[in-house]
Amino acid sequence: AQSVAQPEDQVNVAEGNPLTVKCTYSVSGNPYLFWYVQYPNRGLQFLLKYITGDNLVKGSYGFEAEFNKSQTSFHLKKPSALVSDSALYFCAVRDRRWGYSTLTFGKGTMLLVSP
Amino acid sequence: AAGVIQSPRHLIKEKRETATLKCYPIPRHDTVYWYQQGPGQDPQFLISFYEKMQSDKGSIPDRFSAQQFSDYHSELNMSSLELGDSALYFCASSLRGVSGANVLTFGAGSRLTVL
Cα-Cα-Cα-Cα dihedral of B108, B105, B87, B78, to 10°? Predict the structure, then answer.
């Protein structure tokens, strides 16, 4: 079975400060990892993914994520937060062994960036 | 660029009624997924189709059924609706490729309210 944990329901950060949204995963094999963002009443939008190679993945809107195999983590980061980054962020995982299996999402973390 | 189109965007039904949601995937995408997102919840996988054949099945109730048609659009049929079926229903599509690293592109969702 594959699962994702996002330990924080909400993250608060001031504009201009760095942000981190945490994600840990569990799979039997090696993972494909994804981050999606959801704005109110909108569908999920893809931010970035980890397949293989460099542990630091860069994505849309200045976001990046670091894959750490020993800690089974894939934390989302941004050096300088914007108010417009305020949204719901979902981490997702797919077990590499079951290439076409469903994508499993975490519970989501609400990011609130204050002016 | 064309996106995933879902209709209707909003739907209000009474208990025990039937509802049908439609999804038009991105052209040339060969896989369609349905997810259900309850209030404050993470998206829960319902079912997926690859090349018009059911590919994977998640927590889809027996009262629900889905299919993918020859033009690749998909419909989710929900019968004997219950209050707990009130949720945002997302359709996503992807190009399967040769690995499990395919990115899902989500539609804006169909909000079902059961009264």
Answer: 100
Side-chain-side CA neighbours of residue B84 (13 Å): 3
Q: Give the pLDDT confidence of A15-71 residue by residue, as tens digits.
A: 999 999 999 999 888 889 999 999 887 888 999 999 888 899 999 999 999 999 999
Topology of domain B5-114 in CATH is: Immunoglobulin-like (2.60.40)
| Residue of chain B nearest A107, judged by CA positions | B42
Helix (H, G, I), strand (E, B) or coil at A62: helix
Contact A18, A62 (CB under 8 A): no
Beta-carbon separation of B108 and A41 below 8 A: yes
Instruction: Please indicate whether, in this complex, the C-beta atoms of B100 and A100 are within 8 angstroms of each other.
Output: yes
Residue ranges making up the domain that contains A13: 3-114
Instruction: Show residues of chain A in contact with B110, CB under 8 Å.
Output: none
- A95 → chain B, closest CA residue: B100
Our measurement of the distance from residue A14's CA atom to the centroid of its chain's CA atoms, rounded to an integer in Å, reads 19
Q: What is the pLDDT of residues B97-114, one digit of tens each?
A: 666 678 889 999 999 999
Q: Is A102 within 8 Å of B42 when comparing Cβ atoms? A: no
CB-side exposure of B85: number of CA atoms within 13 Å?
28
List the domain boundaries for chain B.
5-114
On chain A, the residues whose CB falls within 8 A of the CB of B109 are 41-43
